[in-house]
Amino acid sequence: MTDIKSTIETFTKLKSGVKRLTLTDFRNYKNMRLQTEICPIILTGENGSGKTNILEAISFLTPGRGLRGAKLSEIKRICSDNEDEMPKLNDWSVAADILHNNEEYTIGTALQHSIKEDLDDEGTRAYDRRIVKINQQKITQQAELGKYISAIWITPQMDRLFLGGTQPRRSFLDRLVYAFDLEHAKRTAAFEHLYRQWTQLIKSGQTDEYWLKSLETDMAASGVAIAAARREQIARLNTFIEQEPDDIFPNVRLELDGIIEKMLDTNPALHVEDFYTAFLAKQRRNLLYNDYIDGINRTDFKVYFKKKNMPAELCSTGEQKALLVSIILAQTQCQILYKGFVPVLLLDEVTTHLDDCKRDALLDKIRALRIQAWITSTEPQNFELLRHDAQFFNLKNGIIF
Ligand SMILES: Nc1ncnc2c1ncn2[C@@H]1O[C@H](COP(=O)(O)OP(=O)(O)OP(=O)(O)O)[C@@H](O)[C@H]1O
Ligand SMILES: [Mg+2]
Questions:
Q1: Ligand 1 centroid, distance to 53 Cα (angstroms)
Q2: Per-residue pLDDT tens for 259-288?
Q3: Residue 113 pairs with which residues in a beta bridge?
Q4: Closest Cα to atom 19, ligand 1: which residue?
Q5: Which pTM value belongs to this model?
Q6: Ligand 1 centre and the CA of 343: distance in Å?
Q7: CATH 1.20.1050.90 correct for 163-314
Q8: Secondary structure of residue 43 in the 3-state scheme
Q9: From atom 8 of ligand 1, which residue's Cα is the shortest distance away?
Q10: 92-116 residue pLDDT tens
Q11: Where are the CATH 3.40.50.300 domain residues in the chain?
Q12: Looking at domain 1-162+339-401, which CATH architecture does it have?
């Protein structure tokens, strides 16, 4: 326990986080600059003032589609009627000076909007893509960003994470895995691509055995690697949580409910790969009637309130929020402990549903970890505890005070 604490302290002495942020034509910001310290950063302001937009901008310094999973084009600033100047066609951008273990880097990312001739229908077609530069050098693989900055977020939409369908929980879990294994992002993207191809082929009546078999073999190989990485992450988090105090934030027990992950409990990976390949081949007919076939694309991430042995979906709203916070805090500390990589926390309205005791315990924990945490709220009085330890910004209509 003392060992864990002192290892975490060693790494958080080295600073990681955003030092300067510049947004251009990003959502409601025409041009915004913000200078920040590596400490809790409290953004307050009324509804619609631009708090979440700042968190979203920071999430674009990491691979993927940001904390809202938005379409790249919808982020571009929409001008109000009385504004005559239109933003340049193309592009919103986010630029940041960051620290990664005391080393400085610059990251820039922007929408690139281009119009290309479409040879098939002899017209033109618009293409959007996100370009990324690290220290002014353009990079081709977004996953590279993961070497310089890592962000973990909680958003109000995640208040319903434990209710409803499995897909958001699976994506949440996969993001936790990416932070440890950058290849996981590539594997999940590759699996989805193969799965789409395989589905289209079968539904179009294609019976090319060689082609189908080769897709199934590739899906099974990346599927088993995905399942193994998920299992490893769950084990890492459960082990870490074992030694955490089970007090204000309840300890959680994490489980995977998926056929491939379960098979890996008792079988070597190669056997599971063979099983998965044969299983997919047997499912071809079923795919004609079902949209989804069982496998790693159907796995559920199950969370329990450990002491009560209560599934998260049956816990109260505030308890569910506390369980989510427990997972995020465990993930943060595991990243520091096992990767020496201090993440930035993006906590959007995180205090909603937490009672005063839990809210202060969370703020206290963030302060003790000495990491950069961006926290939004409409209620500035919630942050009295951090009066001397945080940077406070008040937002009004996209202007920061
Ligand atoms: N593409 C865009 N162009 C211009 N404004 C936008 C764009 N997308 C969103 N907005 C606006 O940005 C404003 C700020 O949104 P944001 O979600 O950051 O508010 P917030 O401060 O988090 O509010 P709340 O407290 O309600 O969560 C909103 O009024 C929203 O309509
Ligand atoms: Mg908001």
A1: 6
A2: 999 999 999 999 999 999 999 999 998 988
A3: 128
A4: 48
A5: 0.94
A6: 25
A7: yes
A8: strand
A9: 27
A10: 999 999 999 999 999 999 998 777 7
A11: 1-162+339-401
A12: 3-Layer(aba) Sandwich (3.40)
